[in-house]
Amino acid sequence: MVSVSVIAMAVGTGTAAVLIAPVALGAMGFGAAGVAAGSTAAGMMSSAAVANGGGVAAGSLVAALQSAGLTGVATAVVGSVGAAAGGVVGWVSSKFRG
């Protein structure tokens, strides 16, 4: 049986991911106005464009991050990632508790 503390950790990790994602994307340079010049996002986009012959491939990591930055992060996607991360944290912590 899963303890209350493991469930709380999983929920907390998922919630943190949803709250932190927009801040992290903005700090990287992915924003509502597009990619910020001179940012980490600009470097990623430039590298992706060079690797793909001049354009960023649809569905690539850079395209997904830009889409998330433009839309303010799709809550369902971030929530899913957060829930998965929370599940992993809960599972790992249960292994250390014995």
From TrEMBL:
The lineage of its organism: Eukaryota, Metazoa, Chordata, Craniata, Vertebrata. Pfam families: Ifi-6-16. GO terms for biological process: intrinsic apoptotic signaling pathway; release of cytochrome c from mitochondria. It comes from the Eukaryota. Belongs to the IFI6/IFI27 family. It comes from Oncorhynchus tshawytscha (Chinook salmon). One of its GO terms (cellular component) is mitochondrial membrane. InterPro entries: IFI6/IFI27-like, IFI6/IFI27-like_sf. The chain crosses the membrane at residues 6-30, 42-64, 70-92. It is a multi-pass membrane protein. Keywords: Membrane, Transmembrane, Transmembrane helix. This is Interferon alpha-inducible protein 27-like protein 2A. It is found in: Membrane.
